[in-house]
Here is the input.
Amino acid sequence: MSAAIIDGKAFAATLRERVALLVPAFEAAAGRKPGLTVVIVGEDPASQVYVRSKGKATEAAGMVSTTHRLPDTTTQDELLALVRQLNADPAVDGILVQLPLPKHLDESEVIATIDPDKDVDGFHVVNAGRLAVGQEGFVPCTPLGCIMLLEDRLGDLSGLNAVVVGRSNIVGKPMAQLLLAKSCTVTIAHSRTKDLPDVCRRADILVAAVGRPEMIKGDWIKPGATVIDVGINRVDNGEGGTKLVGDVDFASAAEVAGAITPVPGGVGPMTIAVLLRNTLVSAYRRENVALGKGAI
Ligand SMILES: NC(=O)c1ccc[n+]([C@@H]2O[C@H](COP(=O)([O-])OP(=O)(O)OC[C@H]3O[C@@H](n4cnc5c(N)ncnc54)[C@H](OP(=O)(O)O)[C@@H]3O)[C@@H](O)[C@H]2O)c1
Here is the structure.
């Protein structure tokens, strides 16, 4: 293996510490702690695990964590009423509605009801628009985490060829916007892209956000490229259990790439760390407390 491993777990731990260090100054100025409220509807076990770890991480950073656990039978009107109540609550800086919602609920209407200035997930169309035109807003946590890892590794990204495989609203599209804002030359690939291996081979930065286990092979990668694997796929481990793998075939890619994120331990841990960062930024903005440029 020749590639350097990009240690997202360590980077995320440092980011979480930096967030925690900025909480006391906010509390001194605003007379309260930053607050993140998570809303979860139903009993999806994976969502329950995510919500628990978000709550623990929020508290560990010295912020107030509140969780609203609603039953499967919750109606759209009840959920919207809760979101509006949280919009109006001055102690709430960040609102996160855990997705996916049960099928009878309309996710886009729920996201559209969140106050964009409390939308720490960055999913509201107002925040997508702000990102597209270069205004200050909230950027989805996973792609923002990827950019942080890339800048930490490469410094200035301008002029680099970046290929993003995947065009979802929560990863692929905002990732491409962020890379464009860093003056990369950006290509977005998707399921209709012709000759995907050839497109990938042009990338100095290759971001995989597809949801297909180990799809991207070593011979799709330009020698020395930086590879960010967003994929999280649970597959058979061949011994009767399961394991997590990314969208990139790590073993062959690591022979060619200059640097690569592992799965697990790469992009995954960044998502919660950036969520805490967005909540802190929201609190500072909402209370008009100065947060030095580049502080976080
Ligand atoms: N690390 C984290 O915290 C984190 C956060 C979010 C997601 N993820 C993981 O990231 C992956 C992507 O998530 P997502 O929410 O963006 O998924 P998604 O909404 O399912 O989008 C997948 C994208 O991949 C494209 N695609 C599918 N098959 C393809 C193929 N054979 N060739 C080229 N493109 C193909 C799709 O193209 P079309 O648009 O043409 O269908 C789509 O744009 C998943 O593994 C997910 O678990 C990780």
Observations:
- The domain at 30-117 is CATH 3.40.50.10860 (Rossmann fold).
- The pocket of NAP is lined by residues 142, 165-168, 170-172, 189-193, 196, 209-212, 230-233, 267-268, 271 (CB under 6 Å).
- Residues 171 and 279 are 19 Å apart (CA to CA).
- The mean pLDDT is 97.
